[in-house]
Amino acid sequence: MDSFLKNIRSIAGLLLLGLFAWFFTDLFIYICVAVVISIMGRPLVHLLSRVRIRNIQLGTTGGALITMALMLVLLSFFILFLGPLIADQAYMVTTIDSQEISFYYKDFLHDLNDYLANYGFLQSGQDVLEVAQKELKDLVSFSYVSQAFGSVVSITGSFFMAFSIVLFLSFFFLKEPELVRNFILWITPKAHQPAARNILIESRKILSRYFIGLLLDLFSMMIIISTILSIFGINNAILIGFIGGMMNIIPYLGPLIGSVAGTLLGVIYVLANGAFDKLAYTATVIIGAFIFANLVDNFVLQPVIYSKSVKAHPIEIFLVIIIGGNIGGIMGMVAAVPVYTVAKVIFNQYAKSVETTL
Q1: Phi, psi at residue 8, to the nearest 5°?
Q2: C-alpha–C-alpha distance, residues 121 and 113, integer Å
Q3: Are the beta carbons of 174 and 67 closer than 8 angstroms?
C-alpha cells in the first residue's frame, strides 16, 4: 500500500509538472534558463565557497553572490560597449548618399534593376537603390521609432520582470543546488531514487562541461573574427565579431545569419563614408573571415566541445540537431544537444539497472 501511494505521488508530481509547463510556459522557461545559469556558475561557486577572508569563509551564499555579480558585470559591459556601436550604425544609414552610389554603380544598378524588374521583384519605375535606402531609413527613422516606442515600452516591463525572475531563481539555484535535485527525487519512486541520483550527478557534470565549453566557443569565435577583420583594416570589427560569435549558438544556420549581418554592417560603413572602391574588398574580407572562423570551429572547437563534453560522435550530434530543428525550429536546434545529453544519461542508467537486474 505504501509503495502504491508513493507511485501515485510520482505520477501526480509528473502530471503537475507537465500541467505547469503547459499553462505557465513563460515561467517554466525562466526556470530552465535559471537552471542553465546555475549549472554554468556552479563550478565558480564551489571554488569561491572555500575562500576565507580574515577567517570568515564565504560559503555558498557568498560564492553565489559573487558569481551573480560577475555575470551581471559581464552583461553590463557588453551592453555599455556595444550600445554606442549599434547607435552609430543606425546613424550611418541616414547619411548614405543614394545619388553618389547611383553615379558610381550606374552600370551595375541598371543591370540589376532590369533583372529584378523582369522577375517581378520591382515595379515599373522603381529603383532598387531607392527602395533599399527607403527601407533602411524607415527602419531607423523617428516615425518608425515613435511607432515602435509603444511596443518597446510594453515589452520592457515584461523583460525586466523576466530578468528579475531569472536573476532571483539563479541565485537560489546557485546557493542551494539541491532544490531541483530534491524535487526530482520527490517525484521519483523510492526504488528508483539511487538511479535518479546517479542521473542527476552525471547530467550536471556533462551539462556543466557543455555549457562552459559553449561559452568558450562563442568567445573564441568573437575573438577570431574580430582579430582577422582588424588585421585587414575592416571597421566595426568588434561589433561584427560579436554578432558572428553570438549567432554561432544556433547550429549550422547561425554562421550563415552572422555572416550576412556582418557583411551588411561592413557594406553600410563603406557606403556611408563614400569609399565605394572598398566595397568588394570589405565584403570579401568579412565573408572570408567568417568562412575561416567556421572552419576552425567545425574542425577544432566543436569536436572538442560537443564530442568530448557530451561524449557523442559528431554524426550523432549532427542528426540530433537536425531532428531538433524539425521539431522546434531554431529553439529546437539550440536545445537539441542538452536535451539529448540528459536523455542519453537516463537511457544509459536504465540500461545499467536492467543489466544488474538480469
Answers
A1: -60, -40
A2: 9
A3: yes
User: With contact defined as beta carbons under 8 Å apart, do 289 and 229 qualify?
Assistant: yes
Q: How far apart are CA 43 and CA 211, in angstroms?
A: 12
Count CA within 13 A, CB hemisphere, residue 212.
15
Please, are residues 352 and 202 in contact by the beta-carbon 8 Å criterion?
no
Strands (E), the chain: 52-53, 56-57
Plot region of 311 (φ>0 → left; ψ -120 to 50 → alpha; else → beta): left
CB count, 10 Å around CB of 292? 13
Question: What residues does 57 pair with on adjacent strands?
Answer: 52
Bigger pLDDT: 19 vs 5: 19
φ/ψ of residue 228, rounded to 5:
-60, -45
Average pLDDT (89-104) is 70
Give the integer Cα–Cα distance in Å for 347 and 274.
Answer: 60
CA distance 26 to 157: 14
Residue type present at position 32: C
Residue with cell 554524426: 315
Q: Is 55 left (phi over 0), alpha (psi -120 to 50) or beta?
A: left
For residue 207, count other CB atoms closer than 10 A to its CB. 22
C-alpha cell of 218? 562563442
Question: Any idea what DSSP says for residue 50?
Answer: T
Share of the chain above pLDDT 90, in %: 7
The model carries a pTM of 0.72
Alpha-carbon distance 251 to 218, whole Å?
Answer: 12
Residue from 244, 198, 183 nearest 219 by CA: 244
Measured distance CA(153)–CA(126) in Å, rounded: 36
CA atoms within 13 A on the CB side of 149: 7
CA–CA separation, 57 and 192 (whole Å): 36
Instruction: Write down the pLDDT at residue 148.
Output: 46
